[in-house]
Amino acid sequence: MSQLLQAVGFGLATASIVALAAVAVSLQVSVTNFFNFAFGDFMTLGAYVAWSANRAGVNFVLAVLLGGVAVGALGMLANYLVFRPFMRRGVRPVTLLIAGVGLSFVVQNALILIWSPSPRRFSLNLGNAMRLGPFLLTPGDLVMIGASAALLLLLHVMLAYTKFGKAIRATSNNIDLARSCGIDSDRVISLTWFIAGLLTALAGVGLVLQESTLSPTSGFTELFVIFGAVILGGIGRPYGAMLGALIVGLLTEISGAYVNAAYKTSIAFAVVVVLLLFRPQGLVKARGLIR
Amino acid sequence: MVYFLTDALVLGCINAIMVVGLNLQYGYSGLLNFAFYIYVAVGAYIAAVTTMGPSTVPGITYALGWTLPWWLGLLLGGVVAAVLGSLVFLLTVRRLRSDYLAIVTVAVAFIVWNLIDTYQPLFDGDTGLFNVPQITGSANISSEGYSAIMLGLSAALLAVFVWLSRRIFRSPFGRLLRSIREDEEVTAAFGRVTWKPQIAVFTIGCFLAGIAGGLLIFYISAWSPAAFLPLESFILLAALIVGGSGNYWGALLGAFVLIEALGEISRYVPNFGNPANVGALRAIVIGLVLILMLRYRPEGIIPERWLKWYRTKEPASALADSGTPAEGHAPDVGPAAPDRPAPAAAAEVAGAVGERRAAAVAGPSAGNVLLEIRDVVYSYGGARGVDGCSFSIDRGTVTGLIGPNGAGKSTLVEILSGRLTPQAGEIVLDGRSVGGRGPAGMSRLGVARTFQTARVLPHLPVLENVMIAAQAQRGEGPLAAMFWQRGWQAQEAALREEATELLGWLGLTSHLDRPAGSLSGGQRRLMEIARALMAHPRLLLMDEPTAGVFPETSQLIARRVREIAEAGVTVLLIAHNMAFLSWVADEVVVMAEGKVLTRGPLEEARAHKDVIAAYLGVAAGESRGPQASSIGGGE
């Protein structure tokens, strides 16, 4: 029992990272209606920028923020140069997916050129693991869970109560109608890429800190876990994505505690695939951005 | 130097087999399989462990060790990959949208990879297999000699696979796959079950992957999980798209140029900094080329449309003049224009319908009523679309369905075409209750349709767009397509001739070989009529056949619809254009708020006070009930 609860604790920590990433994906998908295949590499870039800045003596929080800005800018650039021309032409969603594969090639290998393929150590030692009720968590885990929850809450406030949030929701619901109501949907999409980029970099840093190593494929290897969470939650629904992330995170850690840990990702995938077969529309039915 | 060349060519041929297989899946039928290389790996492992002897080296473990002959191992590898592929297809592809599918294929591939990498007793885990026997057995042979032998084998297999994919391309099976790729819904509306041909071609593609994997492992003699990372699948896909997806020459070009040539060139790039840099640079080039190609030449270097898909034996000119008006110009075919003799196609339509009618007469109901709609109800969530609608249609008549927006006309047509299932009530076609049979089922019962916004298969030639609609075609299965051409070649010629005549009859003779996506709005509507007739329907449903069409084309459509009805096909059409209706319709049915308001000749219906009220939204008379009077307010 204590083993299970402990795994739940780890699962919460993993879920908080996956949730950030999944919400970033979901936010972007909701306004553009396609999956960015280079998303994993975007996460890696965020982590590298943060690591470099931190090593150059920049304060950790500031370094992470720098990573966020870099990924946000890359997202806007990718949207402008790669994805938007396709969307304007009205191509099949599959084409955008393949364009994303091309972008992933470019970004991932540019990371190799810049930072070399050898793994780097990136950790933040805030102290030893502590016992909190039944859970055993490090202060780093707690900071991650807290930061993730705070950011998601902030995002919720933005989506639900600000004018810009309303514009995102309108664009996601019906882009043509939003346009004809005077919403500059190009700008909304562009800014959404930026906001998603901020979250992406943060998720990337969280991911790397959890493993303590950073390599050019760090983000790519987690790509499908995150996509799985997004699809499971219902595409284009940030709240669904949080639920999906929670399920995937818990599954990974709990199964890792009972069977060979090498299979933990496979088990999470298998469960996601099976759940999808029964609910192809996702657990939370995909529709607008907010009910 | 010679060895260097043969070595590169062997790998080139093996890669080409993979890309040709991927082309069957993605190029022919639009199935995006991001995990193609997993099937290559499975083929390689199976070929290796079935031909190797039992493990003798301590610490090296792997299943089987049957010492089978190499060709059997190769075949088994292909078969196991094919079986795995069809299982994955059945589990996922059938149920998921194309872009989810791509992601799910990767998830499944990861599970397979993870299992092979971690579970040692299977294929020795992450260490992989070594010393896989050569196909020449223990014969002492130089590596130059061996690579020449392997070149012969893989080139011969590649030739066979290219030849088979060419046969598939030209067959009714190939046309069906392309049609599904372009628009699954249209294909289903003409009676096809779309997942069956897809699973067939997916399985064949995985078989090719497995064979390629077996060849590869017999050539390089070692294999480990590090050899099949997701990157490999993406490179194959990039090669296909750059070369030209859908075209087997494009697949070959992509495999040899993008994979092999680029790989060879990158050997000559001097190392700089980290040794991984050259490889990274190569991947960046591939990524950029992929994006640029998708953007500026999405059909690839050698586009699909460059392939000839039929042999031209008969002189095309003999058929060229059978049609009346040319496209675009104003054809002088108003309803008042003197009737020219209907071309052979119309007679053929009449003949085909005649046969069907004869069959119907012999059947249980020989009455004059073809279609009866009884109290049909359909609502979208809370909003009612069709709300207790009843009327019947006689054989060989043209019935116009009119009414204000939101009256439920299109919903009714969707129900009749099988796309929607009525929630209550009954649809009786020729004495048989037919509600809820789905589009394919209704098509097989002789219901054909045109769409509210004309739907074409944009990248296919107009002729193929029409031919796809013919029912009960032979050669739509994979085996007949590849190995029994004689069974369907005569039929193909006949179908092509019929489609050519129908298109000529509708004034599209000069567009037969143009991609349908290049047709104008009016031409698309004409093509849709030809397509529907190609199915030899007894009931033709037309949803606004003249919307957004030049008046001249409307007149042509009107004339043709009359002739179709005279040939014995019953027509139900939605229209808003009163002049058009007065030319074509024997009778109109007026719908409002999901119910039939009245029916009769157009002039009578137009004069009916309820109809005026329904169109103008003013309550007139008590028949409308309290709800409607409240809309009318101050009457």
How would you characterize the overall build of this protein?
The complex is a heterodimer of chains A (291) and B (635). Chain A has 291 residues and is mostly helical. Chain A has a domain at 2-114 and 133-220. Chain A is 76% helix and 3% strand. Chain A has helices spanning 2-32, 39-55, 60-89, 93-115, 139-161, 163-173, 175-180, 185-211, 218-233, 238-258, 264-278, and strands spanning 120-121, 130-132, 135-137, 213-214. In chain A, the strands form 2 sheets. Chain A has a two-stranded antiparallel sheet with strand order 1-4. In chain A, helix 9 (218-233) runs parallel beside helix 11 (264-278). Chain A is globular and about 55 Å long. Chain B is α/β, with parallel strands linked by helices and 635 residues long. Chain B folds into 2 domains: 2-229, no CATH class; 344-600, P-loop containing nucleotide triphosphate hydrolases (Rossmann fold). Helix content of chain B is 54%, strand content 10%. Chain B is built from 25 helices and 10 strands. In chain B, the strands form 2 sheets. A 6-stranded mixed β-sheet of chain B has the order 6-7-8-3-9-10, sandwiched between helices. A 4-stranded antiparallel β-sheet of chain B has the order 2-1-4-5, with helices on one face. Chain B is elongated and about 95 Å long. Chain A binds chain B through residues 34-35, 82, 85-86, 91-95, 97-99, 101-106, 108-110, 112-113, 116-117, 224, 227-228, 231, 260, 262-263, 265-266, 269-270, 272-273, 276-277, 280, and chain B through 30, 32, 34, 91-92, 95-100, 102-104, 106-108, 110-111, 114-115, 117-118, 234, 237-238, 241, 273-274, 276-277, 279-281, 283-284, 286-288, 290-291, 294-295, 298.
Helices and strands, with pairings:
The complex is a heterodimer of chains A (291) and B (635).
Chain A: H1 2-32, H2 39-55, H3 60-89, H4 93-115, E1 120-121, E2 130-132, E3 135-137, H5 139-161, H6 163-173, H7 175-180, H8 185-211, E4 213-214, H9 218-233, H10 238-258, H11 264-278
Antiparallel strand pairs in A: 1-4, 2-3
Helix pairs in contact in A: 1-5, 1-8, 1-9, 1-10, 2-3, 2-4, 2-8, 2-9, 3-4, 3-8, 5-6, 5-8, 6-8, 9-10, 9-11, 10-11
Chain B: H1 2-28, H2 36-51, H3 70-93, H4 98-118, H5 120-123, H6 143-170, H7 172-182, H8 184-189, H9 195-220, H10 230-243, H11 248-268, H12 277-296, H13 317-320, H14 344-362, E1 369-380, E2 383-394, E3 398-402, H15 409-417, E4 424-429, E5 432-433, H16 438-444, E6 447-450, H17 462-467, H18 478-483, H19 489-505, H20 521-534, E7 539-543, H21 551-566, E8 570-574, H22 578-584, E9 587-592, E10 595-600, H23 602-607, H24 609-616, H25 625-632
Parallel strand pairs in B: 3-8, 3-9, 6-7, 7-8
Antiparallel strand pairs in B: 1-2, 1-4, 4-5, 9-10
Helix pairs in contact in B: 1-6, 1-9, 1-10, 1-11, 2-3, 2-9, 3-9, 6-7, 6-9, 10-11, 10-12, 11-12, 14-19, 19-20, 21-22
